[in-house]
Specification:
With 73 residues, the chain is α+β, with helices and mostly antiparallel strands. 22% of the residues lie in helices and 34% in strands. It contains two helices and seven strands; from the N terminus they run ββααβββββ. The radius of gyration is 11 Å and the shape is globular. The mean pLDDT is 94.
Length: 73
């Protein structure tokens, strides 16, 4: 499991996939989400801009990302 520090209150799901390199671009991230290939806390998430907050776990294929609080912006 990879920990991802979010600065501020949240990061949108599509931006998270792009920032971590799980998707090459924002468009690819949105496509993966709309195809139902991304799980949030064990449930399929279809909202491209769902707000990911500290404590949540995102999974794409074999990679799990745990969102943790970082420094405020």
């Amino acid at each position: 499991m990879i920990e991802f520090e979010v600065r501020g209150e949240y990061i949108t799901l599509d931006n998270l996939l792009k920032a971590t390199g799980l998707a090459e671009s924002g468009g690819r991230a949105r496509m993966l989400i709309s195809e139902g290939k991304v799980l949030v806390d064990g449930q399929t998430e279809l909202r491209k801009t769902a707000k990911m907050r500290p404590g949540q776990v995102v999974q794409f294929e074999q990679t799990q990302l745990k969102i943790v609080a970082g420094l405020a912006p």
